[in-house]
């Protein structure tokens, strides 16, 4: 476990800040969905270990998971890129309006997700850093509109992207014990198309679909603790507040509470055990409280009772809270090579009765298998980290998902099923000062 370094790197700060701003400019091009719409981890080393990182900080992105880790990774800079390849699909069966078909949501197939982290010692027992990363996102693009038989036209889909810029400060009050604070400066953007027919069910019909891209900003905090429980066992705790975001005014008729779309509270605990020389076994448990955010957590059912989209407490996507368990093994083969692999599982957040609206947002992957490596050339400050992750395809078959009858009380009955699988490939380069 690396202690913090005290020497100053003031002369390198402009480079780090410039790199962070460059990365921030790229990140809005990315969208991804793994645990619901949250990423399954941050930083290539964590991503190769199933997202484990609460008690196992490894690079400059540590604060994205647990800001106390800023005190344990030494002085370093990291920049990485993930290529994300999702496969989205929906199917409607038994519908009286003739919507029965299988729909391909892969109008865009490839996404690039950059991230950057920088950590430096501040003297004494303090360390500071900044992490810039995609917190989460969701994208669908159906060339054949699943809602066409209900009055929609054109291609259909949504695009949600969330960027965090997180400066962090960590304090080591005693050997082997660290606490940290990160400020989550959040930026998000959203667009929707081809769902204009929902305007007939909205409190603001002109702000439901095809309004281009809208943006909002907000601020939240993340707290963390990291400590040695024994000579071979380390524990960690982390908590992130709900991030209060500005409203999507262009989509005030789509999302509950006039376009309000906050980022939910999440928290977790982790352990890292040095099982033998060169071998580490680590595990995290994470809870994401999607139900806190009305636009995401409210059921679509109130729509059928006459509560319009966009209204206070109005209908949403019906997502439930999600608990994710992650387990990983890491082996230091030699001073120049580390190998890692892991598995994570979380009960996906979309109930079977909510699949009709979630054709737009099928964040239903439950299982991730990952593998990765870090190469440290002899005599070099550089280290190269790569990983691959597979989100095994998962389908949620609708149960009572499409209300029978005609609008406004129904949509012809039948069932909607949604499916998502995904592949991620990433590489990062780190510089240790």
TrEMBL record:
- SUPFAM superfamilies reported for this sequence: Porins
> What keyword terms does UniProt attach to this protein?
Cell outer membrane, Membrane, Signal, Transmembrane, Transmembrane beta strand
Domain of life assignment: Bacteria
Location in the cell reads:
Cell outer membrane
Q: Does the keyword Membrane belong to this entry?
A: yes
Membrane topology annotation: Multi-pass membrane protein
Q: Which GO terms describe its cellular component?
A: cell outer membrane
MF term (GO), any: long-chain fatty acid transporting porin activity
Q: Which PROSITE patterns match?
A: PROKAR_LIPOPROTEIN
Range of residues in the leader sequence: 1-33
The family assignment reads: Belongs to the OmpP1/FadL family.
Q: What name does this protein carry?
A: Long-chain fatty acid transport protein
């Amino acid at each position: 476990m690396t202690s913090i370094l005290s020497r100053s790197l003031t002369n390198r700060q402009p480079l780090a800040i410039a790199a962070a701003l460059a990365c921030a400019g790229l990140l809005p091009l990315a969208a991804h969905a793994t645990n619901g719409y949250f990423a399954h981890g941050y930083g290539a080393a964590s991503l190769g270990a199933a997202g484990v990182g609460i008690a196992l900080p490894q690079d400059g992105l540590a604060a994205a998971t647990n800001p106390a880790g800023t005190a344990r990774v030494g002085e370093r800079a990291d920049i990485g890129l993930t290529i994300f390849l999702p496969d989205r699909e929906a199917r409607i069966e038994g519908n009286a309006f003739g919507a029965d078909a299988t729909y391909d949501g892969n109008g865009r197939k490839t996404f690039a997700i950059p991230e950057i982290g920088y950590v430096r010692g501040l003297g004494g027992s303090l360390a500071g850093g900044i992490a810039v990363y995609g917190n989460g996102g969701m994208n669908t693009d159906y060339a054949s509109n699943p809602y066409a038989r209900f009055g929609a036209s054109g291609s259909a889909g949504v695009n949600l992207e969330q960027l965090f810029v997180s400066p962090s400060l960590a304090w080591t009050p005693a050997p082997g014990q660290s606490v940290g604070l990160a400020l989550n400066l959040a930026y998000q953007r959203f667009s929707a198309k081809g769902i204009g027919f929902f305007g007939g069910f909205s409190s603001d019909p002109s702000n439901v679909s095809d309004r281009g891209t809208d943006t909002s900003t907000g601020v939240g905090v993340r707290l963390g603790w990291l400590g040695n429980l024994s000579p071979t066992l380390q524990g960690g705790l982390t908590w992130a507040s709900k991030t209060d975001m500005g409203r999507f005014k262009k989509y005030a008729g789509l999302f509950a509470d006039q376009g309000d779309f906050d980022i939910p509270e999440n928290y977790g605990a982790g352990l890292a055990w040095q099982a033998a020389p060169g071998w580490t076994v680590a595990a995290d448990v994470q809870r994401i409280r999607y139900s806190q955010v009305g636009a995401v957590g409210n059921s679509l059912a109130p729509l059928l009772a006459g509560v319009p989209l966009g209204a206070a407490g109005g209908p949403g996507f019906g997502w439930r809270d999600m608990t994710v368990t992650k387990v990983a093994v890491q082996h230091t083969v030699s001073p120049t090579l580390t190998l890692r692999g892991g598995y994570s599982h979380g009960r996906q957040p979309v109930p079977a009765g909510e699949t009709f609206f979630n054709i737009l947002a099928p964040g239903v992957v439950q299982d991730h298998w990952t593998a990765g490596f870090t190469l440290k050339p002899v005599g070099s400050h550089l280290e190269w980290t790569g990983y691959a992750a597979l989100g095994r395809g998962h389908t949620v078959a609708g149960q009572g998902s499409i209300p029978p009858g005609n609008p406004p009380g129904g949509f012809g009955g039948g069932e909607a099923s949604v499916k998502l699988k995904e592949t991620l490939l990433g590489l990062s380069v780190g510089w240790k000062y």
